[in-house]
Amino acid sequence: MYVVEYSPSPFGRGAIHRPGRDEENYRLYVSTILRERQDGQWFAASDDWEHVVGGRLKSLNMAR
Question: Is 53 helix (H, G, I), strand (E, B) or coil?
């Protein structure tokens, strides 16, 4: 299972966080993928990520 956190932004692209070594979901995350020097960091979401994931989250929030 690939574990990330996503933080949307009202100003454009949100951010994606990969768990770091001392974080709760790290063991689950590294059992699937290990990215040297990228774990525990935040990265700008791609346009595709925003379209697929961001769009679904917006739909879920609007349904509440």
Answer: helix
| Number of structural domains the chain divides into | 1
**Average pLDDT, stretch 29-33?**
68
Q: pTM value?
A: 0.59
CA dist 47 → 14, 43, 53 (Å): 10, 12, 10
Q: What is the pLDDT of residues 32-42, one digit of tens each?
A: 666 677 777 88
Residue ranges making up the domain that contains 43: 5-63
The answer to whether the CB of 51 falls within 8 A of the CB of 12 is: no
Task: Identify whether the C-beta of residue 45 lies closer than 8 Å to the C-beta of residue 15.
Answer: yes
- Report the C-alpha gap between 47 and 64 in whole angstroms: 25
Residue 31 has which token pair? 């059992």
pLDDT at 62 over 80: no
